Amino acid sequence: MALGDDGGRRAGAHFSAGGKAPAAAPDGASSGAADDLEEVATRYRSQRTVASGEGMPQPIDVSKTGPFERIGSDEGAVFDKDGTEVLGSRQRVKLDPKVVAILVVGAAAVIALGFFLFAKLTAKPAEPQQEEVVEQTQSSVAEPISYRGNTYALAQADDGSFSLVVSGGGADSKTDLGKLAGTPVAFVLYDGAFVVPENLSDGTWDVAAYTIGSGWSVIVDQDGNECKGSGTIRSASLAGSSLEMETDSGTVSVALS
User: Fold this and answer.
1) In this predicted structure, what is the pLDDT of residue 5?
2) For the chain, which residues make up each domain, given as ranges?
3) Residue 244 contacts by C-beta under 8 Å, 6 or more apart in sequence?
4) How far is residue 127's CA from residue 148's CA, in Å, rounded to a whole number?
5) Which helix (H) or strand (E) holds 256?
6) What is the DSSP string of 11-25?
7) Cα dihedral 225→226→229→232 (10° resolution)
8) What's the farthest any 2 CA atoms get from each other in the chain?
9) I want to staple 153 with a disulfide (CB 3.0 to 4.6 A). Which of 86, 103, 109, 144 is the partner?
10) pLDDT by residue (tens digit) across 118-169?
11) What are the pLDDT digits (tens) for 51-90?
12) Where does the sequence pass through the membrane (predicted)?
């Protein structure tokens, strides 16, 4: 290429000093020159962009955008390290205190109900209470005595005699357990035996006893003698393991064990 008189570039062939055209450059050299020209052009465009301010952050015109406000810590979006939004809006939901209180009370009620049902299901069944058996008691002649599910009483027949009768076990009828020899003064239960002090028609008295399964007998003293005497028994009462009687002759104590 040669320069014209006006200093501009003018296309033309390049010749060496001998008048011959220089040898053509190899293909690799031509490609490298093109790459160099492209790099120079890129740098030139970049410098123009920086000089003109294109592509650079520009001041915000508040007159066009309006005033800005700082967002709260519970607002905005959450991004992962690679810039991916993971949660979106973080706007917190505020619950009504009344709703919170209702939820707490409901949860407490459910827990309490669960404990109650658990205790109910795991509790051992209560053992049936056994009826306390009274082995020693006293009643008047006209009052019955309950013993081991049955009711025992002294019943007077039309002829004036007395018998020991028992009822119970769902039966409406009474069973006659045997007649007394005289007129009863008291009705005593002592260790499974029914003791009846009685006045006899011949002016004497004795102490009869009915044992379940054995029937009637007369109580004897330590020497094996029947407990009986002359006169009339006025009253009798159970005193520990003895039967204390008031007779015409005074106080008589009969051991029952």
Assistant:
1) 45
2) 136-228
3) 236, 237, 238, 251, 252, 253
4) 19
5) none
6) ------TTSPPPPPP
7) 160
8) 190
9) 144
10) 887 887 776 666 656 778 999 999 999 999 889 999 999 999 999 999 998 6
11) 555 555 666 666 666 666 676 666 666 655 565 555 554 5
12) 99-119
- What does the alpha-carbon distance between residue 220 and residue 254 come to, in Å, rounded to a whole number? 9
Range 75-107 burial, b when 16+ CB lie within 10 A, else e? eeeeeeeeeeeeeeeeeeeeeeeeeeeeeeeee
For residue 190, give the nearest of 227, 139, 142, 232 by alpha carbon: 139
pTM of the model: 0.50
End-to-end CA distance of the chain: 157
Kindly list the distances between the CA atom of residue 55 and the CA atoms of 43, 45, 60, 64, in Å, as whole numbers in the listed order.
Answer: 15, 12, 14, 20
Token readout for 41 is: 């052009």
Left (φ > 0), alpha (ψ -120 to 50) or beta: where does 19 sit? left
Q: Tell me 203's DSSP state.
A: S
CA atoms within 13 A on the CB side of 65: 7
